[in-house]
Design a protein that fits this description.
Elements (H helix, E strand, L loop, with lengths): L3 E6 L5 E9 L39 E10 L3 E8 L6 E8 L2 E7 L6 E3 L1 E2 L8 E6 L4 E6 L21 E4 L19 H6 L4 E8 L10 E5 L2 E2 L8 H14 L5 E7 L7 H11 L7 E2 L7 H4 L3 E6 L4 H4 L1 H4 L4 E2 L10 E2 L5 E4 L10 H16 L21 E5 L12 H18 L22 E4 L9 H8 L2 H9 L1
Parallel strand pairs: 1-10, 11-12, 11-22, 12-15, 15-17, 16-17, 17-18, 20-21, 21-22
Antiparallel strand pairs: 1-4, 2-3, 2-5, 5-6, 6-8, 7-9, 9-10, 12-13, 13-14, 19-20
Amino acid sequence: MSSPLVIRNLTSRPIEVKRCEYHGSATGLSRDGITNITRNVTSLFRNATTSAASPVSEPQTSFVHEDLLIRIEPFKSRKTSIRQQGPDETLHLTFETEGEQHRLDTPTPTSNSTTLKPLSQNPRFEYTAIHLLEHAHISLYSSANLQTWMRSLKDNTPMSALSIPGTHNSPTCHRALPSVRCQATSPPEQLDNGVRFFDIRVQPEAPLDPAKDGLILVHGVFPISLTGNKYLCDLLKEVYTFLDRNPSETIIMSIKREGTGNATDAQLSRILKDHYAGDHNRWFTAPRIPYLGEARGKIVLIRRFGLEDRLRQEWGGAGWGIDAENWADNTPNAMCPSGDICVQDFYEVLETVNIEKKIQYSQEHLERAAKCVCTSPAPDELAPASPPKQPFYINFLTASNFWKVGCWPEKIAAKLNPAIVDFLCRKHNELEGGGSEQAQAAGDGSTGIVVCDWVGHKGDWDLVRCIVGMNAKLEMREREM
């Protein structure tokens, strides 16, 4: 007998399960353990056609339905008596929010996630479900438009309060050494699918010539492409194009000096300031975490490099860019001296057995971020003199070992990314007891900045959608203010 289905509502509105339908070879419904249910079970009948909305390719041979009334409050879970009976069976669930109904057909043949089908014209709500079959668990998210997901958040939201998807060595999508390539998709595709944090490593090409602006994109000592150098200037053109099309959005860009040669951090800071990040209409370079309204349409600079002397005098002597110069190396949890960034960046996974340790560290950092409660000022209090107190929680889901095939970025991501999707869907910001109606999670449930490898591989953006979906509790509080 299969396990009863648990449904978790990760949206900001109550949802009711109104109807359950089984299509396929199974014929039985479990009827134990649900209260307030009106049952209406039909006899089996033949159905030689499959609806367009159904993910099942074979003709359906049987049908059973049951009318239900299961209410699930926002950010709560309910254990139901609904059971998935067999691999050839399709489950259709009808959900209702404020009189509007949507239907989930599951499982789908291509991925864990699916968009619910609205059962009325001009729906006000959109939902996405992620069905974890092995755990008999469905999580429901509001379907954010990933290209413009920041649009629904208020200007006075501290950026450190957001759940932000990111990518590690973001432009490393080219033909390269297996241990160098970290991404399956290009930076523009990442941006269009919700990524808002870029991790960039550069090597100054001519550091002694103030007139030269060449910054080669690298990963460690290696170029990111075997077919020739790639440059920051071209990447920035793609970012600017995206921001011009989507002015509600912002991109956080962490920049670090790597590569070969004798360039210094001071030289890198000069090149960035003089040739790239000097335009305040394009870049936010104050040495503090911004509010979202200050950063829309701009790149927010996090610097993992030291400054030349003149830049130390910027912003009244406070420096230039959000300071992550003294970033702890290979750490499961560390606060940068600036107090603006708390990072998990344990990357020395020397053996495949250590991937479990990396998963543990990643989940623990998600829990740290989830406990924070955003204190947004009133709109008229928004001022640079009152920067957000909550740091950026930056959580790298990345690791590698050049000498071990099973520990190359793609191999680690294939284990780590699904594990984090599972954690976010079933456990993130839940108290012991599974998020019952009585339990109250203490924090906003933010994930912080979650930095991924190989996200979007074969069109799978479930991890990004889970991260963005965790902004729902913050949005609900903002709506109620």
